[in-house]
Design a protein that fits this description.
CATH class of the largest domain: Alpha Beta
Strand content: 5-15%
Oligomer: single chain
Number of helices: 12
Largest sheet: 7 strands, mixed
Helix content: 25-40%
Distance between the termini: 46 Å
Shape: globular
CATH topology of the largest domain: Aspartate Aminotransferase, domain 2
Radius of gyration: 21 Å
Length: 365
C-alpha cells in the first residue's frame, strides 16, 4: 500500500497538547535527568533521543514497518548485514551495485568468515539461491539502472532458507515498496532524496521481521552507530517535502530522458521510464514512479567531462537525489562502466530551463 504522505505530515500535530510547538523540537543532549528508578525513561544519548525517535515514527509510516535510523546509508547497510550474518554465512551481492557495499563485503565481512559471491544484476537469478544465507539486492542497480523481479527473488530466497535485503535508495518508499513484495529488510541512504537538500548524512533500516529488528537495535546500541540529533531534525524537515520533490524530479526525468534519447550526442541512454529500456517492463510492474536517475553515454570521456563541467545547471558532484541536478562520470570511482558514462540525477529546477541548459551544453560538444 502506498504511504499516505498527507497523514505523515500530521503524525506529530495530531498528538500535540495545547501550547506545544508544531515543529519537531531538536533535543541536543547526551544526558537525561534520572533520579531513582529509571524504568521506561530515556537513559543516555547513545540509546535514546526524542528527535530521532519521532523521525523513526515518520519513516515507519512511510515504509509500513518498524524503522531504525543510522548516521549514513552505509551505516544502515552495515547494520543490516551484521544483524543477519555470522561466521560461516554465505552472502550474495550485486557486482554492479553501489561499490562501497562490495568494499565492506570484500575487505571486512570476508575476513570475519563470511563467504561473499557477486553476480551482475542482469543475470542475478542465474544459479539460483540455494546455500545463500543473505541475498542483498539493488533494483534499480546503481548506476546501471538494471532491475530485478523482487517478488520472485524474495519467494525463491525464502524457499531456499535465506533472508533478502534490498537497497531502495534510488526510488524511496514513494517509488517502490520492497517489503510489500516480500523482501525481508529494506535499507536506504537518506542522504539522497529522502533528505533532499545535500546537507546531511543519514540512513535507515526497516523490516517487518521482529527478530531481525531486535538485532538491528542491539547492533546500533553496542556499535554506537547513532544518528546525530541535528541530522535527524534536518531529515525530518526534508521528509515533509519529499512528496512534492520526488514528483517534480521523476516527472522532469521522464521529459529529459525522452529528449536525450533522440539527441545526436548521446550514444546510449538508460531510464526505466523509456519503453525501449531493458528495465521498462519490470519497472512498470513493480514501481509507482520510474525515478529521477538516468544515465547517458557520450562519445568520449573528454566530451563527457566537457558536458558536465560546462552545463550551469548540473553540479559536478558525487551522490544524488538533491534539489540541484547533478552529474558525474562513475568510471572515476572504479565502476565498471564506459569512461563516457554519466549518471545524471534530476533535481527540482523547472524542466524547460534545465533542458535548455543541458541541450546547449550537448550542442557545444
Amino acid at each position: 500500500m502506498a504511504p499516505k504522505t498527507g497523514e505523515m505530515l500530521h503524525l506529530r500535530g495530531n498528538a500535540l497538547n495545547a501550547g506545544e510547538p508544531v515543529t519537531l523540537p531538536l533535543t541536543q543532549s547526551s544526558m537525561y535527568h534520572l533520579p531513582g528508578v529509571t524504568d521506561g525513561l530515556p537513559t543516555y544519548g547513545r540509546v535514546d533521543n526524542p528527535t530521532w525517535e519521532h523521525l523513526e515514527h515518520v519513516l515507519a509510516h512511510l515504509e509500513g514497518a518498524p524503522c531504525l535510523t543510522f548516521p549514513s546509508g552505509m551505516g544502515a547497510i552495515s547494520a543490516a548485514l551484521f544483524a543477519t550474518l555470522k561466521a560461516g554465512s554465505h552472502l550474495l551481492i550485486p557486482s554492479d551495485g553501489y561499490y562501497v557495499t562490495r568494499v565492506l563485503a570484500d575487505q571486512f565481512l570476508s575476513g570475519l568468515g563470511v563467504t561473499v559471491t557477486e553476480r551482475p544484476t542482469a543475470t542475478f537469478t542465474e544459479g539460483g539461491f540455494d546455500g545463500f544465507d543473505v541475498v542483498f539486492v539493488e533494483s534499480p542497480s546503481n548506476p546501471g539502472l538494471d532491475m530485478l523481479d523482487l517478488p520472485t527473488i524474495a519467494t525463491a530466497v525464502r524457499v531456499a532458507g535465506g533472508i533478502t535485503i534490498a537497497d531502495n535508495t534510488t526510488l524511496t518508499p514513494l517509488g517502490q515498496r520492497p517489503l510489500d513484495m516480500g523482501i525481508d529488510v529494506v535499507v536506504a541512504s537518506d542522504t539522497k532524496a529522502m533528505g533532499g537538500h545535500s546537507d546531511l548524512l543519514m540512513g535507515h533500516v526497516a523490516s517487518r521481521n521482529a527478530q531481525i529488528m531486535e538485532r538491528v537495535v542491539e547492533w546500533r546500541r553496542v556499535s554506537g552507530a547513532i544518528p546525530g540529533p541535528h541530522e535527524a531534525w534536518l531529515l525530518h524537515r526534508g521528509l515533509e517535502t519529499l512528496d512534492v520533490r520526488f514528483d517534480r524530479m521523476c516527472s522532469s526525468a521522464q521529459v529529459l530522458a525522452e529528449r536525450l534519447a533522440v539527441h545526436s550526442s548521446v550514444r546510449q541512454i538508460r531510464y526505466p521510464g523509456l519503453p525501449s529500456d531493458p528495465s521498462h517492463a519490470l519497472a512498470t510492474a513493480q514501481t509507482s514512479r520510474f525515478g529521477f536517475l538516468l544515465s547517458i553515454t557520450l562519445e568520449t570521456e573528454a566530451k563527457a567531462e566537457a558536458f558536465i563541467n560546462a552545463c550551469p545547471m548540473l553540479r559536478p558532484a558525487t551522490s544524488f537525489g538533491g534539489v540541484h541536478s547533478s552529474a558525474e562520470r562513475r568510471a572515476r570511482w572504479g565502476d565498471d562502466v564506459d569512461p563516457a558514462f554519466i549518471r545524471l540525477s534530476v533535481g527540482c529546477e523547472p524542466v524547460e530551463e534545465l533542458w535548455q541548459a543541458i541541450e546547449i551544453s550537448l550542442n557545444a560538444l
